[in-house]
Structures are given as C-alpha cells and as structure tokens.
Write a structure and sequence with these properties.
- 31% of the residues lie in helices and 32% in strands.
- Strand 3 and strand 4 form a beta hairpin.
- It has a domain of 110 residues: Aminopeptidase (3-Layer(aba) Sandwich), CATH 3.40.630.
- An eight-stranded mixed β-sheet has the order 2-1-3-4-5-6-8-7, with helices on both faces.
- By secondary structure, it is an alpha+beta fold.
- The model has no long low-confidence stretch (mean pLDDT 81).
- The relative contact order is 0.14.
Length: 160
C-alpha cells in the first residue's frame, strides 16, 4: 500500500503507511461516507489500507480522496473512487488531483495502459466529469451495487 498526501499547489508527498492509526482510518471513512452515496465501512478501509500491497490512496484531509489499485504486473489501473467535499465540486480541484494521479502512475510504471472504473449509472455529474477527463463508457452492469443500482464501466486509455 502506498499513501500520498495531496497538498494543493505542491503536489503529492509520499507518507509512510506505518503512521496509520485507527483514527486516521475513521477520518477517511467519514469523509467517504459524507461524500459518497455508496461508501466503504471502517473495516473495508482498514483492510484495503493495511492488507493490500497494491492499494494506493491520495488524501487531502477534510477535502478529498482518490483510491486506486495499481499492480505493476498488470496493464490496467482500477480507480475505486474519487470523493470530494461539496464545497470543492465544480472548482477544478478534482481535475487537478486526477491529473496528479495520472502523472504519478505514469512515473510509477511504464506498463499501465488504461484506467477503468465503475460509476453509478444514475450519477450524471460524475459520469460527465469522467467523460470530460476522456473516459469512455464501455459496459453497463445490472444491479452491480449493494443497493441494486446499475454501474457504468468506463475506461481511459493512457497510450498517446
């Protein structure tokens, strides 16, 4: 697992994951719950943060998070979620953070060719955001989420 602290205007700083403590995980889970209709529990965050060597987190305290799975042996990065506080939506903050994410994974490994994600098919704001970033809709999964909602599968090619 790798954890990066996002500082607006400064970029990403790697932070030692051994500095994690349960209150930190609770803060991340609370931010996720506040910003996402479908959110992860404290236990899901703890499991991903502490037990998955390919899990990565970019975190801007009280403002935003971006979680993803990056295995250097694979050619595809799975973007789990981007969550941004309501006050920052529409400000360009998410786009800046996403750009830093793409820059980072491009430096991390040369094998990454694509990013994919699932998004609630009813979340038109998020779908529009991802389309503006260059993502394309490729598939719809029926009843994908725990609440029965469908998901759109979207991809972004990293090949120029």
């Amino acid at each position: 697992m790798k954890y990066f602290l996002y500082k607006e205007g400064e970029g990403l700083d790697y932070t030692n994951p051994s500095l994690f403590h349960f209150d930190f995980v609770k803060d991340i889970a609370a931010l996720d719950k506040e910003m996402m209709g479908l959110y992860w529990s404290n236990e899901q965050w703890m499991d991903s943060l502490c037990h998955d060597e390919h899990f990565h987190l970019i975190y801007c305290p009280d403002k935003a998070l971006l979680a993803f799975h990056l295995n250097p042996q694979d050619s595809v990065t799975h973007l789990y979620k981007i969550a941004v506080s309501e006050s920052l939506k529409g400000s360009g903050f998410s786009k800046k953070m996403f750009s830093k994410f793409v820059e980072m994974i491009s430096k991390e490994t040369l094998s990454q060719q694509e990013i994919y994600l699932e998004v609630e098919s009813k979340n038109l704001r998020a779908i529009g955001f991802y389309e503006r970033l260059g993502f394309k809709k490729i598939h719809q999964k029926k009843s994908f989420y725990s609440n029965g909602d469908d998901a759109l599968i979207m991809t972004l090619s990293l090949l120029s």
